[in-house]
């Protein structure tokens, strides 16, 4: 039987936001790799994800995982018009910073920096100082909109759309911002509640 | 094909928002696929029943003040079990707050720790919906307002209340997905008025 919680009493828990690569360990038993079915592999979308305890835990509900993964890819990697890749990652990092998901923030701040290498310090400022840290006008509008949408209840309103348009976002880009922030309100809650981050592994 | 997000935002075929959503066709169709898999047509009712699914969905949407979405889920729940719907109505006023808040692992982020409501089901709610659903509502409240407070103890409480590991994965997806769904609806509703 797999019906127990897994605890890590010896784990040194990361306690700050970072762009470094954190690990993640599950609090519930992932599905064993040897038991994965064809349907499970379809749900994983990429076969390599069978190595990930996070995805092998989520594959316990394969239809939902498959739909979630395909939506994720369309929101972040469909570059037919809309918001720049770096700014979709900025929206995801802002959402993760606001909800307090150290793991998601590490991944997506790193992705934002990879997409916009000259902005690495700006990304780090978001991690260090939070959403009130100083940014240029465009990133301020994006960060404030993503954070407002992340509040419960949502605080996103007409002024945010106006501010986004004023810094040059068209309506397709606004839709991308909404969907990337909304998606990380989904992802953060899974990552935060089904396991925990582990320190960066020595290179 | 019905699309709940289009219906609740009021997106007509051929409208500007319809064209904008059509540029992200997989996100659009898989948001509906997820909704169907979790709520309208779930494959496995043993891990989470139809009443449990609708009740948790109503609870999360109502706690988040996503009014139209909450009304949708309340309608589904009331068709299945009106008494549970009424019990959740009664529990909402004392459970509703603003988030996110919670506690970080001790260290530099401790300065950002923020206290807030830790919801526990009242005896009346527990009697009305049962120990198992009451535990899920407590967990859904945690995930809604203070997701960074999640812990192995919180999952242990679900196991002890009768949820399986598979059931916890599905409930977690349900709560987390609704937080996506309600924000897409909120965001697009605001954008619609600006177009």
From TrEMBL, chain A:
Pfam families per UniProt: CMD
Gene3D superfamilies cross-referenced by the UniProt entry: AhpD-like
Parts of the chain that traverse the membrane: none
Highest taxon in the source lineage: Bacteria
GO molecular function: peroxiredoxin activity
Start and end residues of each Carboxymuconolactone decarboxylase-like domain: 64-147
Keyword field: Oxidoreductase, Peroxidase
PANTHER family for the chain: CARBOXYMUCONOLACTONE DECARBOXYLASE-LIKE DOMAIN-CONTAINING PROTEIN, SI:CH211-175M2.5
Protein name: Alkylhydroperoxidase domain protein
Source organism of the structure: Microbacterium protaetiae
From TrEMBL, chain B:
Highest taxon, organism lineage: Bacteria
This protein's name: CMD domain protein
Organism of derivation: Microbacterium protaetiae
